[in-house]
Design brief:
The chain is mainly α. The protein has eight helices and no strands. Helix 2 runs antiparallel to helix 3, helix 3 packs across helix 4 and helix 4 packs parallel to helix 7.
Length: 193
């Protein structure tokens, strides 16, 4: 089942691709979706690293790398420091939902075997959703910036991201849309999340 509407990964990628000077919007939107999907899978897999705190560190580093790859596909360039700052800002908003889930799941992990597996699966699904949402937020910010025909500067991108991140209801809608459609296979147009 695919997510439909304004918060769909493929729709958001297509929206960004429409503003890019490229020959094939569908090919670009598919590539953008695949970039986000791959990084979400990497983050989900990182939950299984048995060192406390490493999974979250990997998720943050993975997220800013995802932004760099989105920029590469889009033919846009921003500074590494800005991408790290944006990843931290979006991450703080999106990954905060993992804190409450993490505490509850850690309690369940006390049950040997099955509790640990259940906790890992739940945390993997949650971080997967958060990284997908981070990709959607970032692509929406790029799209808004390009739609305004503003100059592509670090300051303008930061402002575009901040305007989306500060809209808590939109962030919640993005998270809710993707929580309902988690699919680690990603084989159906990479939007079967």
């Amino acid at each position: 089942m695919s997510i439909q509407g304004k918060f769909s990964l493929i729709e958001t990628a297509l929206e960004l691709a429409q503003f890019l000077d490229k020959a094939s919007e569908k090919a670009i939107s598919k590539e953008l979706s695949e970039v986000v999907n791959l990084h979400a899978k990497i983050a989900a897999a990182s939950i299984w690293i048995p060192v406390p705190g490493v999974a979250i560190a990997v998720a943050f580093a993975n997220t800013w790398k995802m932004y760099a790859r989105i920029n590469k596909v889009a033919g846009i360039s921003f500074s590494k420091n800005l991408l790290k700052s944006i990843a931290a800002g979006i991450g703080a908003t999106l990954f905060s939902n993992l804190l409450s889930i993490g505490v509850a799941e850690t309690i369940k992990a006390v049950i040997p075997g099955l509790g640990t597996v259940f906790t890992g699966l739940t945390m993997s699904a949650s971080i997967y959703t958060s990284v997908i949402a981070a990709g959607v937020v970032y692509m929406k910010a790029l799209t808004a910036l390009l739609n305004q025909e503003s100059e592509l500067t670090d300051v303008n991108l930061q402002q575009a991201v901040d305007s989306i991140v500060n809209d808590k209801s939109q962030i919640q809608e993005i998270l809710d849309a993707h929580k309902k459609h988690q699919d680690f296979k990603g084989s159906r147009e990479t939007d079967s999340l």
